[in-house]
Write a structure and sequence with these properties.
The protein has about 100 residues and is an all-alpha fold. It has a single domain, classed as Orthogonal Bundle (434 Repressor (Amino-terminal Domain)), CATH 1.10.260. It is built from 5 helices and no strands. Helix 3 packs across helix 4. The termini are far apart.
Protein backbone atom coordinates (compact mmCIF):
# COMPACT_ATOMS: atom_id res chain seq x y z
CA UNK A 1 0.00 0.00 0.00
CA UNK A 2 2.64 2.55 0.96
CA UNK A 3 4.71 4.03 -1.79
CA UNK A 4 2.19 3.45 -4.58
CA UNK A 5 1.16 7.15 -4.74
CA UNK A 6 -2.54 6.35 -4.41
CA UNK A 7 -4.56 8.72 -2.22
CA UNK A 8 -6.62 6.77 0.29
CA UNK A 9 -9.39 7.53 2.73
CA UNK A 10 -7.56 7.05 6.02
CA UNK A 11 -10.77 6.10 7.85
CA UNK A 12 -11.38 3.35 5.29
CA UNK A 13 -7.84 2.06 5.80
CA UNK A 14 -8.36 1.99 9.58
CA UNK A 15 -11.76 0.33 9.14
CA UNK A 16 -10.18 -2.42 7.04
CA UNK A 17 -7.23 -2.91 9.38
CA UNK A 18 -8.85 -2.47 12.82
CA UNK A 19 -12.62 -2.49 12.33
CA UNK A 20 -15.18 0.29 12.55
CA UNK A 21 -14.98 3.01 15.21
CA UNK A 22 -16.25 1.70 18.53
CA UNK A 23 -15.11 -1.89 17.99
CA UNK A 24 -12.68 -3.26 20.58
CA UNK A 25 -9.90 -3.60 17.99
CA UNK A 26 -10.28 -0.02 16.75
CA UNK A 27 -10.45 1.37 20.29
CA UNK A 28 -7.32 -0.57 21.26
CA UNK A 29 -5.53 0.90 18.23
CA UNK A 30 -6.74 4.39 19.14
CA UNK A 31 -5.52 4.00 22.74
CA UNK A 32 -2.09 2.76 21.57
CA UNK A 33 -1.80 5.63 19.08
CA UNK A 34 -2.71 8.21 21.74
CA UNK A 35 -0.21 6.72 24.21
CA UNK A 36 2.52 6.86 21.56
CA UNK A 37 1.64 10.45 20.62
CA UNK A 38 1.58 11.61 24.25
CA UNK A 39 4.90 9.87 24.86
CA UNK A 40 6.47 11.67 21.91
CA UNK A 41 5.21 15.02 23.20
CA UNK A 42 6.75 14.33 26.62
CA UNK A 43 10.00 13.12 25.02
CA UNK A 44 10.29 16.24 22.88
CA UNK A 45 9.50 18.44 25.88
CA UNK A 46 12.14 16.68 27.97
CA UNK A 47 14.72 17.18 25.24
CA UNK A 48 13.76 20.86 24.89
CA UNK A 49 14.32 21.18 28.64
CA UNK A 50 17.79 19.64 28.03
CA UNK A 51 17.08 16.92 30.54
CA UNK A 52 18.03 13.26 30.29
CA UNK A 53 15.62 10.45 31.08
CA UNK A 54 17.73 9.75 34.16
CA UNK A 55 17.50 13.34 35.37
CA UNK A 56 13.73 13.41 34.89
CA UNK A 57 13.41 10.05 36.63
CA UNK A 58 15.43 11.33 39.59
CA UNK A 59 13.19 14.40 39.92
CA UNK A 60 10.13 12.15 39.99
CA UNK A 61 11.68 9.40 42.12
CA UNK A 62 10.99 6.79 39.43
CA UNK A 63 13.27 4.68 37.24
CA UNK A 64 14.77 5.72 33.93
CA UNK A 65 13.09 2.63 32.46
CA UNK A 66 9.69 3.96 33.55
CA UNK A 67 10.32 7.25 31.74
CA UNK A 68 11.46 5.33 28.65
CA UNK A 69 8.30 3.19 28.63
CA UNK A 70 6.13 6.33 28.84
CA UNK A 71 8.05 8.06 26.05
CA UNK A 72 7.77 4.99 23.83
CA UNK A 73 4.02 4.71 24.37
CA UNK A 74 4.30 1.36 26.11
CA UNK A 75 2.55 2.58 29.24
CA UNK A 76 0.31 5.50 30.09
CA UNK A 77 1.14 7.30 33.33
CA UNK A 78 -1.54 8.06 35.88
CA UNK A 79 -2.97 11.56 35.81
CA UNK A 80 -1.00 12.39 38.95
CA UNK A 81 2.26 11.21 37.40
CA UNK A 82 1.49 13.04 34.17
CA UNK A 83 1.08 16.31 36.07
CA UNK A 84 4.29 15.63 38.01
CA UNK A 85 6.14 15.12 34.72
CA UNK A 86 4.70 18.31 33.28
CA UNK A 87 5.72 20.22 36.41
CA UNK A 88 9.24 18.73 36.41
CA UNK A 89 9.66 19.87 32.80
CA UNK A 90 8.61 23.42 33.70
CA UNK A 91 5.37 23.17 31.76
CA UNK A 92 1.71 23.56 32.60
CA UNK A 93 -1.53 22.09 31.35
CA UNK A 94 -4.27 24.43 30.25
CA UNK A 95 -7.81 23.13 29.95
CA UNK A 96 -10.15 25.15 27.80
CA UNK A 97 -13.73 24.57 26.80
CA UNK A 98 -14.27 24.11 23.10
CA UNK A 99 -17.13 25.75 21.30
CA UNK A 100 -19.41 23.45 19.45
Amino acid sequence: MAGDNIIRDYDAVLDAEYGAPGTPEREAFRAEAEAFYAGQILKNSRKEARMTQGELAAKLNVTKSYISRIENGLITPSVTTFYRIIDALGMRVEIVKTVG
